[in-house]
Design a protein that fits this description.
binds calcium ion, 8 strands, Mannose-Binding Protein A, Chain A, 8-stranded mixed beta sheet, 4 helices, single chain, 242 residues
Length: 242
């Protein structure tokens, strides 16, 4: 804006001088001065008006800008407060939902335990451990089947450790393994195929007196083959749940 004004002023001065030079040819200096002043006066007056407008604009501009900045700043602060409130509400809702979810999961867990009683969850499986009513291996298998289960089928060291920790000392518990069909080839009565995990006590399986074809588990000695006709405690497993 200032640059435009300066150019305009220079133009006006140049125009004025041009008029003055033109006057020198045909008129006296006195007459020419009056004529030139009369010709340039409207331009000078208009320049003065423009100058005042520019000053007024420049005087108002900082104040307007500062006012706008303050307004924007206030809006941002308000927006920030609103965002903080919304975030707090959202966190509160998430916290409540997490609490509800935990409550639902706890209820489901309780229901599962209720549904699967007298089976209890040990590790990732549900087992029923009969500590008192001893059966032969076939009697134990029958009991498990009657409960909608199978004889326990251990798949790894971890499962065995978890289960053994629940057994009573000096008691023997039947599990699924047997070599009734072929000596030395231990099949799982639960899976119907060769067993994949064994943890024999030292010297076992030894098929003592050529009569030991069923496998038990003890707290002290891990797995041993024994006569299927002996009566032991037993462990059933619900193999269809995780
Ligand atoms: Ca044995």
């Amino acid at each position: 804006m200032r640059c435009s004004i300066i150019i305009f002023v220079l133009f006006a001065i140049t125009f004025g001088r041009s008029l003055s030079q033109h006057c020198d040819v045909d008129e006296s200096q006195h007459e020419c001065g009056g004529y030139c002043y009369g010709a340039v006066k409207p331009v000078l007056e208009y320049l003065a008006i423009l100058h005042k407008r520019v000053e007024a604009y420049e005087a108002n501009q900082p104040a307007d800008t500062a006012s706008k900045i303050l307004l924007i700043d206030e809006k941002l602060k308000t927006l920030g407060r609103q965002t903080a409130i919304q975030e707090e509400l959202l966190n509160s809702k998430i916290q409540k939902l997490e609490q509800q979810l935990a409550s639902v999961q706890e209820t489901i867990s309780k229901l599962k335990h209720k549904v699967f009683e007298p089976f209890q969850k040990i590790g990732s499986k549900y087992y029923y451990i009969e500590h008192e009513n001893k059966k032969t291996w076939h009697g134990a298998l029958k009991k498990c089947l009657e409960m909608g289960a199978q004889l326990a089928s251990l798949q790894n060291e971890n499962e065995m450790k978890e289960l053994r920790s629940r057994l009573k000392p000096h008691q023997k518990y039947w599990i699924d393994l047997n070599d009734l069909d072929k000596e030395g080839e231990f099949i799982s009565a639960t899976t119907g195929v060769k067993g994949t995990f064994f943890h024999w006590y030292k010297g076992e399986p030894n098929n003592l007196a050529n009569s030991e074809h069923c496998v038990d588990l003890t707290f002290e000695y891990a797995m041993s083959d024994r006569s299927c006709d002996l009566t032991h405690c037993y462990i059933c497993e619900l193999s269809f749940v995780d």
